[in-house]
């Protein structure tokens, strides 16, 4: 058999796309984008985080179009993003300005400002709730009304509180190193190729847009022994960060008076990692370093796993794969990994025939 | 009122203050559209708390509009797909840049809206404080 180069399949592809539409429509059910936004918060958050584009509306639309496939939804969002102009860069967002909705520490029970559980599945029974099968709008509205009535009695102050970071208290005690604000312009991996060794800014950008499952798996691998980082979570916080942009150049106005454009919800984590060091007398000492994780939306598992990998990548001297930045950073992107795996479905007739020919040749020689 | 503060109020306000101010202004002035409301991206730069360095967390979808009133340019930029609001913000911004007399009259309305926003946020925070953990130490 000789090499087989092929073309064609246009009609089959058209029929396949029709079939795909049929699969989505045949049950005569329509899920509205606003329904996805209202009821699938976590899914919307993950799509925004992995596509690196904050827009709950577009994320919900992509989920609808992709029929719930995460990799498709993220792919569609990334493709859409590439059609839009980059109009602004934000001013630096500082997480002390977060309106905190949830904040916990696994390191201290008493943290200034207290531990705020917010909305979480952490303390729920993971049993299927069959009552949801009979859910009624009216019933739900009554529940909400009763809950709001309960909340109405809560007295509020006339001020909003902002919480300092747990780590800042430890820094003040001298237990953690302090760092001067480093305003080095970050590398933007959407504008330039990821360089190796990767600057810290590039590492964090790749990690924060990494696929949730991949980031979690590698963070877990490090915990289980394929890495040297086993942290204690210093603080997990979830909340909304305000975003400001400067006036674009050339409009001749005051650059120190920015525009507020809205807020983004994020999950942010500082993990405390014990590290052995030697003091000036060459005696072994235990110190703490901080692993940092953050991502769009409420996705605490990903943010914690990111903080582990951040700390791993700060120590490339270790031989474990989770400390190897090429291994970690080049394999966690959703579009890159699913795209490359998917390409295996594309015709490889010529290359495979060539391999077959080689095998046949070897076998023939063996018989002779 | 500084732009930072007024844009915070106009965007966080959940009534129709921006619409009200912009429409009121257009009874006496006309505007020239420089850039019609369109969608684009803002790259968000963030400071991380481990090494205190900067990185990009990702992009945010925004709507931007640009108008001109009395030869003063105004920009409206807001997160999401908000064509009308972006245009209204641009008109209001142009009014401030042109120092139009109406902007003085808006001051109290903006302060009132700001107080309302703060009150709602403080109430939401007080509600969230219901989930604050009260640890009890277990003694022998």
Estimated radius of gyration of chain A? 26 Å
Please indicate the count of domains of chain B.
1
Main β sheet profile of chain B: 3 strands, antiparallel
> In one word, what is the shape of chain B?
globular
SSE-based structural type of chain B = alpha+beta
Helix content of chain A: 40-55%
**How many beta-strand runs of chain A?**
6
> How far do the termini of chain B sit from each other?
60 Å
The protein's oligomeric status is heterodimer
| SSE topology string of chain B | HHEEEHH
Largest interchain contact: A-B, 90 and 54 residues
Strand order of the largest sheet of chain A: 3-4-5-6
- What's the count of strands of chain B? 3
Overall geometry of chain A: globular
Mean pLDDT reading of chain A:
92
What would you report as the Rg of chain B, rounded to the nearest angstrom?
20 Å
Percent range of helical residues of chain B? 40-55%
* Beta-strand proportion of chain B: 25-35%
Give the termini distance of chain A in whole angstroms.
20 Å
Number of helical regions of chain B: 4
Please, could you describe this protein's structure?
Chain B: One of its GO terms (molecular function) is lyase activity. Chain B: Keywords: Lyase. Chain B: This is Phosphonate C-P lyase system protein PhnG. The complex is a heterodimer of chains A (368) and B (140). Chain A has 368 residues and is α+β, with helices and mostly antiparallel strands. Among the domains of chain A are: 10-81, no CATH class; 95-191 and 229-314, no CATH class. In chain A, 40% of the residues lie in helices and 16% in strands. Chain A has helices at residues 10-25, 33-39, 41-51, 56-65, 70-81, 137-152, 166-172, 200-208, 212-224, 300-313, 325-329, 334-343, 349-367, and strands at 53-54, 86-89, 99-104, 232-245, 259-278, 284-296. In chain A, strands 3-4-5-6 form a four-stranded antiparallel sheet. In chain A, β5 (259-278) and β6 (284-296) form a beta hairpin. In chain A, α8 packs antiparallel against α10 (300-313). The model of chain A has no long low-confidence stretch (mean pLDDT 92). Chain B has 140 residues and is an alpha+beta fold. Helix content of chain B is 44%, strand content 29%. Chain B has four helices and three strands; from the N terminus they run ααβββαα. Chain B has helices at residues 3-12, 17-25, 83-97, 102-128; strands spanning 32-47, 54-69, 72-79. Chain B starts with a helix and ends in a 12-residue tail after the last helix. Chains A and B meet through β1, β2, β3, α8 and β4 of A and α1, β1, β2, β3 and α4 of B.
């Amino acid at each position: 058999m000789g090499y087989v180069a092929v073309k064609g399949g246009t009609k089959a592809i058209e029929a396949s796309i029709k079939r795909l539409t049929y699969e989505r429509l045949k049950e005569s059910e329509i899920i509205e984008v606003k329904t996805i936004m209202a009821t699938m918060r976590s899914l919307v958050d993950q799509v925004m985080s992995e596509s690196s584009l904050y827009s709950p509306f577009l994320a919900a639309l992509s989920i609808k179009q992709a029929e719930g496939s995460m990799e498709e939804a993220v792919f569609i969002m990334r493709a859409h993003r590439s059609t839009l102009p980059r109009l602004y860069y934000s001013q630096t967002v500082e997480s002390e300005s977060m309106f905190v909705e949830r904040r916990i520490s696994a390191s201290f029970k008493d943290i200034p400002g207290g531990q705020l559980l917010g909305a979480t599945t952490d303390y729920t029974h993971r049993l299927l709730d069959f009552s949801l099968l009979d859910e009624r709008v009216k019933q739900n509205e009554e529940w909400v009304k009763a809950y709001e009535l309960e909340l109405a009695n809560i007295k509020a102050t006339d001020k909003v509180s902002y919480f300092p970071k747990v780590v800042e208290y430890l820094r003040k005690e001298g237990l953690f190193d302090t760092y001067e604000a480093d305003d080095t312009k970050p590398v933007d991996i959407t504008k330039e190729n990821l360089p190796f060794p990767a600057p810290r800014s590039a590492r964090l950008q790749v990690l924060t847009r990494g696929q949730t499952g991949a980031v979690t798996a590698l963070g877990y691998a490090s915990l289980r022994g394929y890495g040297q980082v086993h942290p204690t979570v210093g603080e997990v916080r979830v909340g909304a960060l305000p975003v400001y942009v400067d006036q674009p150049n050339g409009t001749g106005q005051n650059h120190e008076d920015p525009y507020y454009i809205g807020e983004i919800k994020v999950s942010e984590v500082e993990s405390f990692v014990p590290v052995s060091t030697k003091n000036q007398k060459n005696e072994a000492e235990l110190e703490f370093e901080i692993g940092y994780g953050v991502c769009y939306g409420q996705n605490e598992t990903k943010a914690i796993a990111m903080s582990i990998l951040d700390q791993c990548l700060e120590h490339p001297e270790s031989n474990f794969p989770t400390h190897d930045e090429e291994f970690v950073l080049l394999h966690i992107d959703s579009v890159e990994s699913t795209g490359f795996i998917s390409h295996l479905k594309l015709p490889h007739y010529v290359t495979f025939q060539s391999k077959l020919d080689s095998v046949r040749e070897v076998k023939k020689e063996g018989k002779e | 009122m500084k732009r930072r503060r007024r844009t915070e109020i106009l965007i966080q306000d959940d009534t129709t203050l921006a619409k009200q101010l912009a429409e009121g202004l257009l009874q006496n002035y006309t505007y020239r559209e420089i850039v019609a409301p369109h969608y684009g991206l803002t790259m968000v730069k963030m400071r991380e708390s481990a090494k205190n360095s900067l990185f990009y967390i990702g992009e945010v979808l925004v709507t931007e509009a640009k108008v001109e009133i009395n030869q003063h340019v105004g920009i409206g930029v807001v997160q999401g797909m908000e064509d009308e609001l972006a245009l209204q913000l641009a008109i209001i911004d142009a009014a401030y840049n042109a120092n139009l007399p109406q902007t003085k009259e808006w001051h109290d309305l903006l302060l009132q809206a700001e107080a309302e926003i703060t009150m709602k946020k403080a109430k939401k925070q007080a509600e969230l404080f219901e989930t604050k953990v009260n640890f009890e130490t277990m003694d022998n």
